[in-house]
Specification:
- With about 350 residues, this protein is an alpha+beta fold.
- The protein has two domains: about 140 residues, Protein Transport Mog1p, Chain A (3-Layer(aba) Sandwich), CATH 3.40.1000; about 150 residues, Protein Transport Mog1p, Chain A, CATH 3.40.1000.
- Helices cover about 25% and strands about 40% of the residues.
- The protein contains seven helices and 20 strands.
- The strands form five sheets. Strands 3-4-5-11-10-9-8 form a seven-stranded antiparallel beta sheet, sandwiched between helices. Strands 14-15-16-20-19-18-17 form a seven-stranded antiparallel beta sheet, sandwiched between helices.
- A hairpin with a 2-residue loop joins strand 14 and strand 15.
- The two termini are about 30 Å apart.
- About 30% of the residues are buried.
Length: about 350
Amino acid sequence: MGKSSTSRGARKNSTKARESSLSGNAPSGWIRFGWQGISGLVPPEWNIGAIGGDHKQGYLRLDDTDYPRLEVKWNQQQIDLSRVLEKYLRSMKAPKKFGGGILGKGRRAVEVDRKVKIISHRAKPSKEILGFSWQQAQGLKGAGVVWTCQVCRRTLFGQVRAYGAEDAVALAKRIFSSLEDHGEAGRLLWALYGLEFRIPEKYLLIGQSLMAGYLELRFQNRQRKLRVSRWGLAANLLAQGNLSDWFKTAGVSPKSGFHWQAHDTIIKEHPGLKILGRSQRPLARLGKSLRALSRSALKRSGGGPAESDGAGRVWHCSQSNRIYLVESLHEPEAEVLAEVIESINCH
Protein backbone atom coordinates (compact mmCIF):
# COMPACT_ATOMS: atom_id res chain seq x y z
CA MET A 1 0.00 0.00 0.00
CA GLY A 2 2.79 2.40 0.96
CA LYS A 3 4.82 1.62 -2.15
CA SER A 4 1.80 2.12 -4.41
CA SER A 5 0.94 5.46 -2.82
CA THR A 6 4.55 6.60 -3.05
CA SER A 7 4.86 5.71 -6.76
CA ARG A 8 1.53 7.40 -7.51
CA GLY A 9 2.71 10.53 -5.68
CA ALA A 10 5.98 10.53 -7.62
CA ARG A 11 4.07 10.29 -10.92
CA LYS A 12 1.83 13.18 -9.86
CA ASN A 13 4.79 15.39 -8.90
CA SER A 14 6.53 14.58 -12.19
CA THR A 15 3.40 15.46 -14.14
CA LYS A 16 2.92 18.75 -12.29
CA ALA A 17 6.53 19.73 -12.89
CA ARG A 18 6.21 18.99 -16.61
CA GLU A 19 2.93 20.89 -16.89
CA SER A 20 4.47 23.89 -15.13
CA SER A 21 7.38 23.81 -17.58
CA LEU A 22 5.04 23.57 -20.56
CA SER A 23 2.91 26.44 -19.34
CA GLY A 24 5.95 28.70 -19.37
CA ASN A 25 6.38 28.13 -23.11
CA ALA A 26 2.85 29.04 -24.19
CA PRO A 27 0.45 31.95 -23.69
CA SER A 28 -2.06 31.79 -20.86
CA GLY A 29 -5.26 30.00 -21.82
CA TRP A 30 -3.70 27.44 -24.14
CA ILE A 31 -4.97 23.89 -23.67
CA ARG A 32 -3.45 20.43 -23.73
CA PHE A 33 -4.05 17.83 -26.40
CA GLY A 34 -2.95 14.21 -26.29
CA TRP A 35 -3.24 11.31 -28.72
CA GLN A 36 -1.18 8.09 -28.99
CA GLY A 37 1.61 9.56 -26.87
CA ILE A 38 1.76 12.82 -28.86
CA SER A 39 0.91 15.71 -26.54
CA GLY A 40 1.40 19.44 -26.23
CA LEU A 41 -0.19 22.85 -25.76
CA VAL A 42 -2.22 24.67 -28.41
CA PRO A 43 -4.66 27.60 -28.66
CA PRO A 44 -8.08 26.74 -27.16
CA GLU A 45 -9.92 26.82 -30.50
CA TRP A 46 -7.70 24.09 -31.98
CA ASN A 47 -9.21 20.60 -31.87
CA ILE A 48 -8.66 17.23 -33.50
CA GLY A 49 -9.70 17.33 -37.15
CA ALA A 50 -8.23 14.05 -38.43
CA ILE A 51 -6.58 10.95 -36.98
CA GLY A 52 -5.12 7.78 -38.44
CA GLY A 53 -2.90 4.83 -37.66
CA ASP A 54 -1.88 3.64 -34.21
CA HIS A 55 0.84 4.08 -31.61
CA LYS A 56 3.57 2.70 -33.88
CA GLN A 57 2.72 4.72 -36.96
CA GLY A 58 0.07 7.38 -37.33
CA TYR A 59 -1.16 10.82 -38.22
CA LEU A 60 -2.84 13.61 -36.27
CA ARG A 61 -4.23 16.94 -37.46
CA LEU A 62 -5.60 19.79 -35.35
CA ASP A 63 -7.88 22.41 -36.93
CA ASP A 64 -9.24 25.74 -35.78
CA THR A 65 -12.80 26.76 -36.68
CA ASP A 66 -11.79 27.43 -40.31
CA TYR A 67 -8.43 25.92 -41.29
CA PRO A 68 -5.97 23.08 -40.67
CA ARG A 69 -3.38 24.22 -38.12
CA LEU A 70 -1.09 21.48 -36.83
CA GLU A 71 -0.22 18.15 -38.38
CA VAL A 72 1.99 15.47 -36.88
CA LYS A 73 3.16 12.17 -38.37
CA TRP A 74 5.13 9.54 -36.48
CA ASN A 75 6.58 6.05 -36.87
CA GLN A 76 9.11 3.73 -35.25
CA GLN A 77 11.58 3.76 -38.14
CA GLN A 78 15.01 5.30 -37.81
CA ILE A 79 15.57 7.40 -40.92
CA ASP A 80 17.84 10.06 -42.35
CA LEU A 81 16.23 13.32 -41.23
CA SER A 82 17.96 15.41 -43.88
CA ARG A 83 16.66 13.20 -46.68
CA VAL A 84 13.11 13.23 -45.30
CA LEU A 85 13.10 16.98 -44.96
CA GLU A 86 14.60 17.56 -48.40
CA LYS A 87 12.03 15.23 -50.00
CA TYR A 88 9.17 17.10 -48.36
CA LEU A 89 10.44 20.55 -49.31
CA ARG A 90 11.01 19.42 -52.90
CA SER A 91 7.46 18.10 -53.05
CA MET A 92 6.16 21.55 -52.15
CA LYS A 93 7.77 22.94 -55.29
CA ALA A 94 6.45 20.17 -57.52
CA PRO A 95 4.11 21.12 -60.39
CA LYS A 96 0.53 21.69 -59.29
CA LYS A 97 -2.46 22.12 -61.55
CA PHE A 98 -5.24 24.61 -60.91
CA GLY A 99 -8.30 24.20 -63.15
CA GLY A 100 -6.29 22.72 -66.01
CA GLY A 101 -3.49 25.29 -65.80
CA ILE A 102 -0.23 25.32 -63.88
CA LEU A 103 0.68 27.94 -61.32
CA GLY A 104 3.84 29.91 -62.05
CA LYS A 105 6.06 28.38 -64.82
CA GLY A 106 5.32 24.77 -63.97
CA ARG A 107 6.32 25.23 -60.35
CA ARG A 108 4.67 26.51 -57.18
CA ALA A 109 6.03 29.83 -56.00
CA VAL A 110 7.36 28.67 -52.62
CA GLU A 111 10.23 30.03 -50.55
CA VAL A 112 11.81 27.55 -48.13
CA ASP A 113 14.29 27.86 -45.28
CA ARG A 114 16.07 24.62 -44.35
CA LYS A 115 18.17 26.13 -41.57
CA VAL A 116 15.67 27.90 -39.34
CA LYS A 117 16.00 26.87 -35.70
CA ILE A 118 12.64 25.99 -34.17
CA ILE A 119 13.90 24.19 -31.04
CA SER A 120 17.38 24.08 -29.57
CA HIS A 121 19.08 20.82 -28.64
CA ARG A 122 19.38 22.16 -25.10
CA ALA A 123 15.59 22.40 -24.84
CA LYS A 124 15.13 18.78 -25.98
CA PRO A 125 18.45 16.99 -25.39
CA SER A 126 17.03 13.51 -26.13
CA LYS A 127 16.14 14.47 -29.69
CA GLU A 128 17.98 15.06 -32.96
CA ILE A 129 16.08 17.94 -34.55
CA LEU A 130 15.94 19.75 -37.88
CA GLY A 131 13.75 22.81 -38.40
CA PHE A 132 12.23 24.29 -41.54
CA SER A 133 9.85 26.96 -42.78
CA TRP A 134 8.12 27.78 -46.05
CA GLN A 135 5.92 30.45 -47.60
CA GLN A 136 3.79 30.46 -50.72
CA ALA A 137 3.18 33.50 -52.90
CA GLN A 138 -0.51 33.43 -51.91
CA GLY A 139 0.42 34.12 -48.27
CA LEU A 140 0.09 30.64 -46.80
CA LYS A 141 2.99 29.92 -44.46
CA GLY A 142 4.26 27.00 -42.46
CA ALA A 143 7.07 25.95 -40.15
CA GLY A 144 7.96 22.81 -38.30
CA VAL A 145 10.41 20.13 -37.27
CA VAL A 146 11.62 16.65 -38.09
CA TRP A 147 13.12 14.75 -35.18
CA THR A 148 14.11 11.37 -33.81
CA CYS A 149 13.80 10.61 -30.11
CA GLN A 150 16.37 8.54 -28.22
CA VAL A 151 13.84 7.68 -25.49
CA CYS A 152 10.88 6.26 -27.45
CA ARG A 153 12.73 5.65 -30.77
CA ARG A 154 10.06 7.54 -32.68
CA THR A 155 10.65 9.63 -35.77
CA LEU A 156 8.31 12.60 -35.92
CA PHE A 157 7.39 15.11 -38.61
CA GLY A 158 5.34 18.10 -37.48
CA GLN A 159 4.37 21.46 -38.91
CA VAL A 160 2.03 24.35 -38.19
CA ARG A 161 0.27 26.50 -40.76
CA ALA A 162 -0.05 30.26 -40.37
CA TYR A 163 -2.42 32.65 -42.09
CA GLY A 164 -2.61 36.39 -42.71
CA ALA A 165 -0.18 38.39 -40.58
CA GLU A 166 0.71 35.44 -38.33
CA ASP A 167 4.39 34.57 -37.89
CA ALA A 168 4.72 30.87 -38.72
CA VAL A 169 8.16 30.45 -37.15
CA ALA A 170 7.16 32.13 -33.88
CA LEU A 171 4.03 29.97 -33.72
CA ALA A 172 6.03 26.83 -34.42
CA LYS A 173 8.49 27.65 -31.64
CA ARG A 174 5.63 27.92 -29.15
CA ILE A 175 3.91 24.75 -30.33
CA PHE A 176 6.89 22.44 -30.66
CA SER A 177 8.61 23.55 -27.48
CA SER A 178 5.68 21.95 -25.63
CA LEU A 179 5.27 18.94 -27.93
CA GLU A 180 6.27 15.48 -26.68
CA ASP A 181 6.15 12.08 -28.36
CA HIS A 182 6.07 9.80 -25.31
CA GLY A 183 4.52 9.69 -21.87
CA GLU A 184 5.80 10.26 -18.36
CA ALA A 185 6.36 7.48 -15.80
CA GLY A 186 4.68 4.91 -18.04
CA ARG A 187 1.51 6.99 -18.45
CA LEU A 188 0.10 8.55 -21.62
CA LEU A 189 -1.98 11.71 -21.75
CA TRP A 190 -5.19 11.53 -23.77
CA ALA A 191 -6.79 14.94 -24.21
CA LEU A 192 -9.38 16.06 -26.76
CA TYR A 193 -12.43 18.31 -26.79
CA GLY A 194 -12.00 19.10 -23.11
CA LEU A 195 -11.79 15.45 -22.02
CA GLU A 196 -8.43 14.77 -20.41
CA PHE A 197 -7.05 11.75 -18.56
CA ARG A 198 -3.95 9.62 -18.14
CA ILE A 199 -3.71 5.89 -18.60
CA PRO A 200 -0.90 3.30 -18.36
CA GLU A 201 0.82 3.01 -21.72
CA LYS A 202 0.33 -0.78 -21.74
CA TYR A 203 -3.34 -0.09 -22.55
CA LEU A 204 -3.60 0.33 -26.33
CA LEU A 205 -6.40 2.19 -28.08
CA ILE A 206 -8.76 -0.24 -29.88
CA GLY A 207 -11.62 2.08 -30.81
CA GLN A 208 -13.20 5.48 -30.37
CA SER A 209 -16.46 7.36 -30.89
CA LEU A 210 -15.97 11.10 -31.32
CA MET A 211 -19.34 12.74 -31.74
CA ALA A 212 -21.00 15.99 -30.74
CA GLY A 213 -22.22 15.45 -27.21
CA TYR A 214 -20.52 12.09 -26.75
CA LEU A 215 -16.90 10.93 -26.54
CA GLU A 216 -15.71 7.38 -25.95
CA LEU A 217 -12.22 5.89 -26.01
CA ARG A 218 -11.73 2.12 -25.66
CA PHE A 219 -8.46 0.49 -24.61
CA GLN A 220 -7.15 -3.04 -24.14
CA ASN A 221 -4.25 -4.64 -22.27
CA ARG A 222 -4.25 -8.37 -23.06
CA GLN A 223 -7.70 -9.54 -21.94
CA ARG A 224 -8.40 -6.45 -19.85
CA LYS A 225 -10.49 -3.68 -21.39
CA LEU A 226 -11.00 -0.10 -20.28
CA ARG A 227 -13.62 2.40 -21.46
CA VAL A 228 -13.63 6.16 -20.81
CA SER A 229 -16.81 7.98 -21.86
CA ARG A 230 -18.29 11.45 -21.52
CA TRP A 231 -21.80 12.69 -22.29
CA GLY A 232 -22.73 16.34 -22.71
CA LEU A 233 -26.02 18.10 -21.92
CA ALA A 234 -26.38 16.03 -18.75
CA ALA A 235 -29.31 18.07 -17.44
CA ASN A 236 -31.34 16.99 -20.47
CA LEU A 237 -30.29 13.35 -20.11
CA LEU A 238 -31.33 13.28 -16.46
CA ALA A 239 -34.54 15.26 -16.88
CA GLN A 240 -36.75 12.13 -16.68
CA GLY A 241 -34.96 10.30 -13.86
CA ASN A 242 -31.91 9.98 -11.65
CA LEU A 243 -28.38 8.88 -12.55
CA SER A 244 -29.09 5.22 -11.76
CA ASP A 245 -32.11 5.16 -14.10
CA TRP A 246 -30.09 6.79 -16.85
CA PHE A 247 -27.19 4.34 -16.44
CA LYS A 248 -29.44 1.28 -16.79
CA THR A 249 -30.89 2.52 -20.08
CA ALA A 250 -28.12 4.55 -21.71
CA GLY A 251 -24.85 4.09 -19.83
CA VAL A 252 -24.49 0.35 -20.42
CA SER A 253 -22.74 -0.66 -23.63
CA PRO A 254 -25.25 -2.89 -25.50
CA LYS A 255 -22.45 -5.13 -26.82
CA SER A 256 -20.65 -5.68 -23.53
CA GLY A 257 -22.60 -8.81 -22.56
CA PHE A 258 -22.51 -7.74 -18.91
CA HIS A 259 -25.14 -7.50 -16.20
CA TRP A 260 -24.47 -4.44 -14.03
CA GLN A 261 -25.39 -3.46 -10.50
CA ALA A 262 -25.15 0.20 -9.50
CA HIS A 263 -24.78 1.61 -5.99
CA ASP A 264 -24.97 5.28 -5.04
CA THR A 265 -21.73 6.93 -3.99
CA ILE A 266 -19.85 10.24 -4.16
CA ILE A 267 -17.13 10.73 -6.77
CA LYS A 268 -15.05 13.89 -6.94
CA GLU A 269 -17.65 15.54 -4.66
CA HIS A 270 -20.35 14.74 -7.22
CA PRO A 271 -23.28 12.30 -7.07
CA GLY A 272 -22.14 9.07 -8.65
CA LEU A 273 -22.46 5.32 -8.96
CA LYS A 274 -20.14 2.47 -8.13
CA ILE A 275 -20.86 -0.19 -10.74
CA LEU A 276 -20.04 -3.91 -10.65
CA GLY A 277 -20.60 -6.26 -13.56
CA ARG A 278 -20.94 -9.95 -14.27
CA SER A 279 -20.36 -11.40 -17.72
CA GLN A 280 -23.39 -13.16 -19.20
CA ARG A 281 -21.31 -15.09 -21.74
CA PRO A 282 -20.76 -18.79 -20.89
CA LEU A 283 -17.17 -18.96 -22.15
CA ALA A 284 -16.23 -15.86 -20.18
CA ARG A 285 -17.77 -17.31 -17.03
CA LEU A 286 -15.98 -20.63 -17.56
CA GLY A 287 -12.63 -18.89 -18.07
CA LYS A 288 -13.15 -16.84 -14.94
CA SER A 289 -14.01 -19.95 -12.90
CA LEU A 290 -10.86 -21.72 -14.08
CA ARG A 291 -8.69 -18.72 -13.22
CA ALA A 292 -10.32 -18.47 -9.80
CA LEU A 293 -9.65 -22.16 -9.13
CA SER A 294 -6.03 -21.73 -10.17
CA ARG A 295 -5.52 -18.75 -7.87
CA SER A 296 -7.24 -20.57 -5.04
CA ALA A 297 -4.98 -23.59 -5.45
CA LEU A 298 -1.86 -21.46 -5.50
CA LYS A 299 -2.89 -19.63 -2.35
CA ARG A 300 -4.23 -22.83 -0.72
CA SER A 301 -7.22 -20.83 0.25
CA GLY A 302 -10.70 -22.01 1.05
CA GLY A 303 -12.12 -19.47 -1.35
CA GLY A 304 -13.87 -16.16 -0.80
CA PRO A 305 -16.40 -13.85 -2.37
CA ALA A 306 -16.52 -14.00 -6.16
CA GLU A 307 -14.64 -11.23 -7.93
CA SER A 308 -16.52 -9.07 -10.40
CA ASP A 309 -15.85 -9.34 -14.14
CA GLY A 310 -16.29 -5.60 -14.48
CA ALA A 311 -16.07 -2.51 -12.32
CA GLY A 312 -16.37 1.20 -12.83
CA ARG A 313 -17.59 4.58 -11.72
CA VAL A 314 -20.18 6.97 -13.15
CA TRP A 315 -20.72 10.54 -12.00
CA HIS A 316 -22.64 13.68 -12.90
CA CYS A 317 -20.70 16.94 -12.85
CA SER A 318 -23.28 19.72 -12.68
CA GLN A 319 -20.64 22.45 -13.11
CA SER A 320 -19.72 21.19 -16.59
CA ASN A 321 -23.17 19.67 -17.29
CA ARG A 322 -21.57 16.35 -18.20
CA ILE A 323 -21.72 12.68 -17.23
CA TYR A 324 -18.50 10.69 -16.98
CA LEU A 325 -18.00 6.93 -17.01
CA VAL A 326 -14.82 4.90 -16.48
CA GLU A 327 -15.31 1.14 -16.86
CA SER A 328 -12.87 -1.76 -16.55
CA LEU A 329 -13.73 -5.25 -17.86
CA HIS A 330 -12.22 -8.73 -17.45
CA GLU A 331 -10.11 -8.87 -14.29
CA PRO A 332 -10.42 -5.14 -13.61
CA GLU A 333 -7.44 -3.47 -11.96
CA ALA A 334 -8.69 -1.37 -9.05
CA GLU A 335 -5.58 0.80 -8.90
CA VAL A 336 -5.68 1.60 -12.63
CA LEU A 337 -9.38 2.40 -12.39
CA ALA A 338 -8.79 4.77 -9.47
CA GLU A 339 -5.81 6.37 -11.18
CA VAL A 340 -7.69 7.11 -14.41
CA ILE A 341 -10.63 8.59 -12.49
CA GLU A 342 -8.32 10.74 -10.40
CA SER A 343 -6.65 12.12 -13.55
CA ILE A 344 -9.94 13.44 -14.99
CA ASN A 345 -10.67 17.11 -14.33
CA CYS A 346 -14.40 17.20 -14.88
CA HIS A 347 -14.80 20.94 -14.32
